[in-house]
Amino acid sequence: MLDDARLLVTESHEQVVRLYHRTPAGVVTELDAAEGSLAFDEGRAPYATLRASALIPESTAAFDAIDPRTGSSLILHAGYMLEGAEEVEQVASVRLDSRGAARPADRMELVALGAEQALMEWNPLVSQRTIAHHHTAGSAIAGIIQWALPATLSVAVDPDTEVRFLEAADEPIVIDATADALDVALDIADRAGLWVYDQGDGHWRVRRRPTEAGQSSVILNVGENGTVIDTTAQLARNAGSPERSWANVVVVIHEWSDRDKGQQRSVGWAAVTSGPMSVENAGRKVVTYRRSTPAAPGSASRAAASLLRRHATRGRQVSLRAIAAWWVRPGDTASVQLPQGPQQRLIVARVEFGLSDGTMRIDLRHPETFDITTGE
After folding, report:
1. Which structural domain, as residue segments, surrounds residue 272?
2. Tell me: the pLDDT tens digits for 206-265?
3. CA nearest 305: which of 222, 236, 211, 168?
4. pTM for this predicted structure
5. Do 202 and 258 lie in a common domain?
6. For the chain, how many structural domains are there in total?
7. Same domain as 156, residue 187
């Protein structure tokens, strides 16, 4: 689709952005959107968030149909005008979560979220699903998604995610009316060192989270013919909520009730033990997670290590504003040339596209260069 645009993104070009509303019955209406953003964030569930300000349709029926309670969705198409022809494709299809209306300005404020939100809201009520020792992680996660959300378009499971994640000492995991299906899926992913998310179009992905730079999907540079508009860099020990801040120690505590044994508890931890940000050199900065699924200490420790790999890369952030490259997603590698220093190959952690100004804000993290020790 945008292969030609990838070659020409540094040249002068016109961007094309179109926003549509789709009812559950499949009726599609184009909206007059003035501004907004589309964000993809590897550290957040839902992974995809679309925000838009649009004119209220003249048709009362069309306006009334834009109702988040019905399961309607927003669809975003974006791309470029290249040599007089449009190179445009769908970049998001996400469920509408809220609609605000302002009069007499006649504007709507719309928010739509990826399918993780639907999984979060779902409950099995009287049915249940058991995840046993013979299950592998990728298939177990895919099974949860397809059981809870049968209208899911697809769940792509990478072959290297099919690993056992329950230890001999672990109890089977039961999803029933007392459990959160998304929490269970994320817990399994953490134990196995995986990443699960709706790609922002109804197609889910279960994969390993990149820890090393790979082949670059975009080149970001400053200067003549560069795509970078401005840059910021931040070093922080405490920034944002604990779940999104830097840490060099993660503790995972599982607490659950067993019908025969009563209240149960297990604890696992992981710590950075090499480099300048190790616990020995930087002191302990601890983030604690509490979970309600049954788990042996070894499983809790593996989940802690998985979570620590994310936290340990968050204290050093490079953020760029650049010409929108609509194909870029978290987990991609970007070749970055800043005003000072050599070219670097960094990993995309978050990207947010502006719907009206043709730019993107991209947050980058450095590849992992530290050792982790776990314990119980």
Report:
1. 242-312
2. 999 998 998 998 988 887 778 888 888 888 888 778 888 999 999 999 999 888 888 999
3. 211
4. 0.93
5. no
6. 4
7. yes
